[in-house]
């Protein structure tokens, strides 16, 4: 037995050697394969992996904002989501179409058609609500993505809507300020790389994409939100009362030419462009041409005084209210015989004005009107502005000259009329209107002297008599405040002559001796009354009172009954809190207030007074949440680059 055992061979060492040899061959093969992949196929495989998990994306920045003269927000952008898809990565088109149709409330055939597109990128629905975005994310549909973007909102609704204009779904300005400064406000684009998980959700954004400044630049207007609000509400009240077709109110700071308010009725809410009509979107203050009527008479008197054709006390025969010229009959509402020139203006006699115009002459009067800017666009630069109508003097008949003398036979826009009155208020030197504070406007029209300072002051003195207790503008009087004014009641042209519709207007310069404020009101086609003294003058008065009160310049002699009318919060539908207080008196709490449930307009108003421009997230017009929370200290500097102290409002 022992001998047999000793004869048996031991193969364990051989087995171990074979195993080691096999491992060596395997490792050598792996090393060779690894070397081959690294040296020869590494770049190709790396690119393939990158295509599967990384993607280059392009984003747009935020469109520039629009502010009023005090820094209150008029237009901004909020972050929104859009639902997109890559049809080549859709797994189960029917299932995806069913889910998206249900979540987004759009027709299934429409969704199905887009998901079957031959393109690698399609929009399913743009600017979805937060709830829709959350539902799409929860559905986890391969090939369906949520893309971040921005949607334009106007926190004050219809406030200055026609002036601001609007943008299309791609963020391109189509009307108003949005169109004029589209190149300035439109954002740039940045291209960056993102890594996605298996569902296509973004994991990170590279540093380059975060650091590039791609936001558009802001624009600041001369408009004052509070004065604009007062003008719009006063105009709306008058139009409703007299069942008028439309209306315009302009408020201008005389010293600078800044337009503080440009109210136009019917109102237009740029948040709801699709629900509006063309007549609402039209900025009538610059597009609509009117025969201004008797509001043109101060310029006739200024020209006649400058040319020594009349003196304030020159007697004029007003023909007892009825006078024929060139086969046409001119009538006066209040028949008079002999009147001094000052009372021709005070009582707004058409016959007396026509006789002054005939003595002045067509060529001379046309020259003054041209210098005042009639027949020429203003420097506002707004799209769609009209040049008005001013015939060459060689075509004027005696009837034309007589008619133009009392504001018929000439066409002007509201801004042209305001610019002309600004010349009288500025000692006879022209001054252009301003609507933009930043960037500084590029002026085309140089200032020129049209009237002597003495003539301008004399006309203002005569206009002061218009607001006298027996003048046509007496309903615009404000106790304790001197006012130079002029009424206008222009019969509107119709087929074959003049019809039965009127334009009622009033212009006020306050104070009369050295004007600081110009207020112009036009009410188009009032039905229950048509005299400018009844329809337009009270609007002018109300806007003037509110503006003076807001600026802290309302006279102490104003009696209690007048003072009560300054309570805007009791008169307007959507009052701006503290809208009559001077900005210097408006205080904020020491800690962050509770902004939840406030309209976004009001929240923005409070924050911008503190110097904070918040980040808005979500869609809607009401604040649903905020950061920092109520009661927390105010952030030190939310506008400083790189700071973590960002004020965020979530909207719903």
TrEMBL record:
- Domain named Penicillin-binding protein transpeptidase: residues: 247-543
Q: Does the keyword Metal-binding apply?
A: no
Hydrolase is among the record's keywords: yes
PANTHER family in alphabetical order: PEPTIDOGLYCAN D,D-TRANSPEPTIDASE, PEPTIDOGLYCAN D,D-TRANSPEPTIDASE FTSI
> Which cellular compartments is it found in?
Membrane
InterPro entries according to UniProt: Beta-lactam/transpept, Beta-lactam/transpept-like, PBP_dimer, PBP_dimer_sf, PCN-bd_Tpept
Q: Where is this region: Disordered?
A: 623-643
Question: Which Gene Ontology BP terms does the record give?
Answer: cell wall organization
Q: What is this protein called?
A: PASTA domain-containing protein
Coiled-coil stretches: none
One Pfam family recorded for the sequence: PBP_dimer
GO CC terms, sorted: plasma membrane
Protein source organism:
Pseudodesulfovibrio cashew
One GO MF term attached to the UniProt entry = penicillin binding
Domain Penicillin-binding protein dimerisation, by residue range, is 59-169
Instruction: Determine the domain of life of the protein's source.
Output: Bacteria
Q: Which UniProt keywords apply?
A: Carboxypeptidase, Hydrolase, Membrane, Protease
Q: What is its main location?
A: membrane
